[in-house]
Amino acid sequence: MDEAIRFSETVSARLEDGVLVVTLNNPPVNAISADMRAGLLDAVRQANSDQNVRALVITGAGKAFIGGADIREFGQPATEPTLPTVVEAIEGSGKQIVAAINGAALGGGLEIALACHHRVAGSAATLGLPEVKLGIVPGAGGTQRLPRLTGVVKAVELISSGRTVTARDALSLGIVDEVADDPVKGAISAARDQSAKLPRRTGALAVPAEDPKAIEDGAAKALSRARGSEAAIEAVRLVRSAGERSLADGLSDERATFLRLRDSDQAKALRHVFFAERAAAKVSGLEGVEPRKVEIVGVVGSGLMGSGIAVAALDAGYRVIVVEQTDEAAAKGLDRITGLLDRALKSGRIDEAGRSGRLERLSVGSSMEALAAADLVIEAVFDDLQVKSELFEKLGRIVRPETVLATNTSYLDPDAIAAVTSFPERVCGLHFFSPANVMRLVEVVRCARTAPDVLATGLAFARRLKKLPVVCGVCEGFIGNRIFSAYRREAEFLVEDGASPQEIDAAMENYGFAMGPFAVFDLAGLEIAWARRKRQAATRDPSERYVEIADRLCEMGRFGQKTGRGWYTYPDGKRTVDPEVTALIDACRAAKGIVPRQIAAAEIASRLLSAMAAEGNALLKEGIAERASDIDLVLINGYGFPAYRGGPMYVSQQGTHS
Ligand code: T1G
């Protein structure tokens, strides 16, 4: 073989002292295309019959190792050679094949690595089988080979969640054999060292013996999290079966399941979500706009929201200055933030060094002047226009001329807040969802005067926090709460028409929501929506349908779960139907002369989804949301809409409600 060999458009190799280093190059993430499969198979076959080749290394060009199968090809039938054919050729090769995992090894990418005989990961590599997030199961041996390395319990957890792990974690789980600063160099030297040995084939290993109870518990936990995701349920079944039958039987079941799921409605919806996330990153008017540099983040307010935002910023490596009104409040804020870090330590999400590093980057105090050092200041104080306006006026005098100011308001008009400053172009909204250090969604609000680079700064900041930013314009409630209000209104119409809150909750939980609407109302508290309805009462069109039941509940002091009573009652914390509420609903219906009728679960879901989509269409028309898929992302990531349904706009476009 020559020194530089090209096997296909995306696969080339060079021979280094008897080791054939095969490089996959399909920018931007080395997704596995038909061309790559053909080239890789050719490389392995030719190497097998070439006496000059003692061993092989497979690696990726650029930042990724292999970002998985090419999702854009999913709608088409798989062409030969298929990925299982390539994987089988790699594992079955008589010559040592070592994976040099230089970056992301996901899905089919990890399956290729698992079929190699030895794995060396670079320290920045990430590894995972995220297929369930696309509504499918791994299709090239992932469910059968991973448990042979990690055991069934770990593999069930990893594959059913689709979670990715770092190189270090992969090493301790047994997924990789080495972590090296230069994985290609490490892999070449491993290939040389081991070229005389028999290849260690993952598929030939026995699945490690484990306590059957641990497997049972792990599977039960994964299934309870699966919540209607067919792919996750199938993934659990396939991984569990790995220990109970031959590799060949496991592989053929896995492939058949993969092919069946690939064409399912859930998989189609999840592909829509995948591309929706990428589309959301492309914001009109920001082409070529550079965000401002942010190193120090200021947070005003250290309540539930402020402390969550502070922790998210600390997690992302920022220096964080938290300011409260008094020393006493600052001390409480510090306690709250420390408490969140302690919890992260206890759960193993961070280690002791991570905890102390975060605390070193944090300062909490009562002097506003400290914010003069900040590049971005986020206010998370009480949601009151007067309070926020006064704060922004004060901040305007303290911060530097390039500092970006962001408001975390949920319902107030950020344009009105920006107007009190002399620099509204430096103000945007960053609407986090609670708990802010956990929830992925951030609505980035483009105010009337927000400068493009300020909006870009908000987006870049949210992205560095590993959040999903969605840009929206100014309206009451932004995208999410506007749609949620429409959802609430329709849910109350349904109650008046004859459905009980518990029937509605059951219908929506059955549809795939984590919680039904009335359980959510009780959890969030009924008083904010009540206050808003009272504010709007004077201007409400009297001919508009209005349901009074929620007002009556609030007048009775039933503000939801925190008062022990709302739409439900909560003896010992357990959600229970309350005859008092049932009687109230009956009375309200009777007062309007409504004869209640039985409403089927399908009609409940269909009406609630239509109400959401109608409000979404209004948001598009008003230019609040840039595209329908942005609305889907908001509902999925902020409001518990089941991802495998694709979001309310997607559902309405498909015309399928149940
Ligand atoms: N296929 C096609 N396009 C992809 C892709 C993929 N697998 N992954 C990324 N892209 C595009 C993406 O749309 C975007 O395009 C650009 O690459 C950069 O992506 C048999 C069947 C690898 C960690 O689920 O997690 O293998 O918008 O902005 O932040 O079992 O992309 O620029 O036009 O996300 O640096 C499993 C999904 C497939 C991996 C890189 N694979 N990708 O993150 O860039 S299932 C996945 C990611 C499978 C087998 C089965 C991330 C990344 P555009 P990006 P990034």
Mind explaining what this structure looks like?
The chain is an alpha/beta fold and 658 residues long. The protein has 3 domains: 4-262, 2-enoyl-CoA Hydratase, Chain A, domain 1, CATH 3.90.226.10; 296-472, NAD(P)-binding Rossmann-like Domain (Rossmann fold, 3-Layer(aba) Sandwich); 480-623, N-(1-d-carboxylethyl)-l-norvaline Dehydrogenase, domain 2 (Orthogonal Bundle), CATH 1.10.1040. Helix content is 47%, strand content 12%. It is built from 26 helices and 18 strands. The chain has an 8-stranded mixed beta sheet, with helices on both faces. Helix 1 links the parallel strand 3 and strand 4 (55-60). Helix 24 packs across helix 26 (648-654). The N and C termini lie far apart (58 Å). The model has no long low-confidence stretch (mean pLDDT 95).
